[in-house]
Amino acid sequence: MRRILISAAAAIGLLVAGGEPWPLASAARAPGVSADDSSLDALLAEDCADGVALEIAQAASRLPQEAGVASDEWPPHALGGVIPPVRSVSDLFPTFDGIALDTENDRVIFSDENRHSLLVYGRTAGGASNDPTEPVQWVFGPKTRLGYIAGVEVDPKRREFYTVNNDSGDLMTVFSYDDHGNVQPRRALTLPHQSWDVSLAPGRDEIVITVQQSNALSFYKRGATGTSAPIRTIRGLATQLEDPHGTYFDEAHNEIITANHGNWTQIRPYTPYDPIVTDVGEYKSGAFHPSAITFHAADANGDVPPLRTIEGDVTGLNWPMGIDVDLIHDEIAVANYGDSSVRIFRRGDRGSVQPVRVLRGALTQIVGPVSVAIDTKHDEMWVANYGDHTAVVFPRTASGNVRPKRTIRNAPKDTPTCGFTNASAAAYDSKRDEILVPN
Amino acid sequence: MFARLANGIVAPKRVIEGQATNLSRTMHGIAYDAIHDEIVIPVALSGAVLVFKADASGEVPPLRAIQGTRTRLVRPHTVAVDPVNNEILTADPSMRAIAVFDRMANGNVAAKRVISGPRTGLLDIVGLDVDPIRNVIVAASRKGNGEKVGLFVFDRLANGDVEPKQFIGGPNSKLAHFRQVTIDPGTGNIFLAQQNTRMKQMEAYVLDKPREGFTAKEKDDEDDDSDSGRLDQMGFIAVYGPDDNGDIPPRAIIKGPGIRLAGAAGVALNPRKNEIITVGGNGFQTFLLPDFFKPLKKLGGGTARP
């Protein structure tokens, strides 16, 4: 997690050099939070006090003024060395990814994939301001072990919240409402690579995890830690799990509801620690399937088909991400990233069905939504935007192109988002003079 | 797609995304074909390689898709395009192979050549480029025990289980956890993005099953696969000459906090402007280095001086 710290420190250094304030610097503390009371700025400064980090942060802050900074002598006789960039593109603000809503304790928790933090707000937070909304609590820093986190879940009774590292550390980490700042997780569970979402079944005392690259649902005991193995896994050709993302453990109906992007391949071991295997069995080629919502029996184990699916052109499903279920009104809400909408289906729907409501359009301010949360207690629906530095709150039954009731911002209004996370390749388009980055 | 001169917190000029594109949100490679004005991109989670018009924007289908039982693709990670010899190359760590397809291949098409097998030394292949002028393929591949971690140079027409003609790696190279490789066509210089000098950490699972004998590390800061932030372990952009071979340090390097911001996972070149673009994490940086686009002297007589 040092990378995260240093990125933050260097970014802060550049920000300071540029005279811009840190958006969360004056964030308020939650009542009853008993951990260290430092601001995020102070936390970063404290974490830079280990010499190396401080040196890097200081060097980064000098970059605009200096042509180079002396460093060690390796490699000998080489061209180059410590060299500043002539241009730098980076989104220094958080981006909302997952949402978990706790109406018992009046909190909402967001995962921030960009800066690797968990941000907690009061349930009534937000409004019409153009300024960033102050969280009441945050978890951020190298001790947290947060990487490129995605899904988030909350356990109101135990006052705990969970998140899943989709990349850079294959972990689920659990924090308490009493945790704040750069703190170690209360517990951590090692997960398969590319896990995306987590959903809790309090009655069964289990959690379910989606795993993108394995096209799997893995189940663990709620309190599992370390390298505990899954208690069962739904995986295989019959499951119709295809690049699964958001999931919901519906204990009331004994079902697991999962949003799938439709990408599928029969992945084989690929890491540098796995040997070459020549006997790979029958080869199944990769495939592009339509996006779908799958419903599996919660007790299923192995290569088990879904009980039903929602799939087809009229569904409008397009890279569905997070989902939530309204057990009172028997509805499912889906954050439909591909067309910047939220689609509401009946929980019992199957096949190619139209949603009962669609929330979409410029007025909604829904841009690249990654998660959604339904609040039946206060009749609201929350949407987290990856494509904008916002989350927006609507009346639960809102439909069409309507304005949100209030907006939560993690950056000043109209701050752009770079639109990629954890990129690992680039190309240069010489005809258009453009830089291409796959996400 | 960003303007070359973009600087600061900037939104892309255009984006290709959505269901109809057949892309996913997990893509690790990209190549631009300047002659035919196309973008080539692997989709790891669908065992496919897609080709788009370079001016595509929004939710548009690909021009061509290489996918199907004849392709043998499983999890293509990175791609390269050879517009001179009309070929698309992809490296697939699950196949443990480099597969070469006709550039116009579309659908369920077999590869023209496949470089794979124990003699190749290839395992976790994360970077790939082709030099149609010097007729070589350069692959960046990693093995967990530290052996055969580095750059593998093959004849462009290599096929089957063949040894590389050159290999750059070993303790003096400090090559360990790297990703994208790219070649400057003018000089043949090889650019490699290395995230850090520690070996990639072992994953706790083999796909969805716990790895036998795996024990979790105690130190938190060792759980991160990316750049550790320590000066002695920080990532860098390494540059080698086309004839370099053996356990040698980089001939040219970009290191320090500037490259640190990028994380050095990907690297692209704009030779006309002498610019090197590095990408990683949530941003990219551009470096202006004319000397890196000049031929490096051949090593010989024990000197490592470029």
Structural summary, described in words:
The complex is a heterodimer of chains A (439) and B (306). Chain A has 439 residues and is mainly beta. Chain A folds into two domains: 2-71 and 80-90, no CATH class; 96-409, Methylamine Dehydrogenase, Chain H (7 Propeller). In chain A, 8% of the residues lie in helices and 36% in strands. A four-stranded antiparallel β-sheet of chain A has the order 3-4-5-6, with no helix packed on it. Chain A has a four-stranded antiparallel β-sheet with strand order 7-8-9-10, with no helix packed on it. In chain A, helix 1 (2-18) runs parallel beside helix 3 (52-62). The two termini of chain A are 21 Å apart. Chain B is an all-beta fold and 306 residues long. Chain B has one helix at residues 257-262; strands at residues 2-3, 31-33, 38-43, 48-53, 64-66, 78-82, 87-92, 97-102, 113-116, 124-131, 136-142, 150-155, 166-169, 177-183, 190-196, 205-206, 209-210, 234-240, 252-255, 266-270, 275-280, 283-288. A four-stranded antiparallel β-sheet of chain B has the order 2-3-4-5, with no helix packed on it. Chain B has a four-stranded antiparallel β-sheet with strand order 6-7-8-9, with no helix packed on it. The radius of gyration of chain B is 19 Å and the shape is globular. Chain B starts with a strand and ends in an 18-residue tail after the last strand. The model of chain B is unreliable at 219-229 and 301-306 (pLDDT under 50). At the A-B interface, helix 1, helix 3, strand 1, strand 2 and strand 17 of A face strand 1, strand 3, strand 16, strand 19 and helix 1 of B.
Mean pLDDT of chain A: 86
Mean pLDDT of chain B: 90
Overall outline of chain B:
globular
Strand order of the largest sheet of chain B: 2-3-4-5
Q: In the CATH hierarchy, what is the superfamily of the largest domain in chain A?
A: YVTN repeat-like/Quinoprotein amine dehydrogenase
Question: How many helices of chain A?
Answer: 3
Report the structural category of chain B. mainly beta
Shape of chain A: globular
Q: Which class best fits the helix and strand makeup of chain A?
A: mainly beta
Into which percent range does the helicity of residues of chain B fall?
under 10%
Q: How many H/I helices of chain B?
A: 1
Quaternary organization: heterodimer
Main pleated sheet of chain A: 4 strands, antiparallel
Most residues in contact, chain pair and counts: A-B, 123 and 135 residues
